[in-house]
Amino acid sequence: MSHHNDDQNRNTADSAQPETVEIVPQSAEAAQLDQLAALQSSLDAVKAQAAEYLDGWQRARAEFANFKKRIEAEREEARDRSNEALLLNLLPIVDDLERAFQTVPPELSELPWVNGVSIIWHKLQALLESERVVPIRAAGQPFDPQRHEAVMQEETTAHPDGTVVAEIRRGYQRGERVLRPALVKVANNPSQTSPHKEQS
């Protein structure tokens, strides 16, 4: 009887104790793998951020380079415009000297002061050439409203209609840009019939 009670008491005591779950310790290799995975994840994040910073720096550098080029181009254009304004102001002086030498009497052409003024005139012409300023061709050319300004017309049959027959004031251009159009006299040839009139 007592033996039966002992077994019952032991079973009761066993059922009263909580069940324990056996925790299998993580192996050292698995822990290292987890640590490597965490490090790799951190490295990837740092690389991504570094790439983002590099991309932003390269964009900022390119934008700054473009800005610098634009500023230099604008500065060069402003300097070029300023030079053109100065050259334009010199042209009337060149005109006056040219007209003066066209009217110098032969007996005065060898005087020292005439030679001195002639040297100044040639220096001005050399300055214009160094700045790529050249005269615009006018006389004998077809009238070009981009380079010529008609101030007179001449009724004539000696020249084709619309031909520049005389240059009143010389024009100049710098490269492809017209500094000052040539003032010209243009032929008006009434004997020439326009293609439109021939068709009618």
Overview of this protein structure:
- The chain has helices spanning 2-16, 28-102, 112-130, 195-199, and strands at residues 133-135, 148-155, 164-169, 172-174, 177-180, 182-188.
- With 200 residues, it is of the alpha+beta class.
- The chain folds into two domains: 45-131, Alpha-Beta Complex (Hemagglutinin Ectodomain, Chain B), CATH 3.90.20; 134-194, Nucleotide Exchange Factor Grpe, Chain A, domain 2 (Roll).
- The strands form two sheets. Strands 1-4-5 form a three-stranded antiparallel β-sheet. A three-stranded mixed β-sheet has the order 2-6-3, with no helix packed on it.
- Strand 4 (172-174) and strand 5 form a beta hairpin.
Class from helix and strand fractions:
alpha+beta
Cα-to-Cα separation, first versus last residue? 147 Å
**How many beta-strand elements?**
6
The largest pleated sheet is described as:
3 strands, antiparallel
Strand order of the largest sheet: 1-4-5
- Poorly predicted parts: 193-200
- Helical fraction equals 55-70%
Order of helices and strands, N to C?
HHHEEEEEEH
Rounded to an integer in angstroms, the radius of gyration calculated over CA atoms is 48 Å
* CATH fold topology of the largest domain: Hemagglutinin Ectodomain, Chain B
Question: What is the top-level CATH class of the largest domain?
Answer: Alpha Beta
Please indicate the percent range of residues in DSSP E strands (runs of 2 or more): 15-25%
How many distinct helices?
A: 4
The best one-word shape is elongated
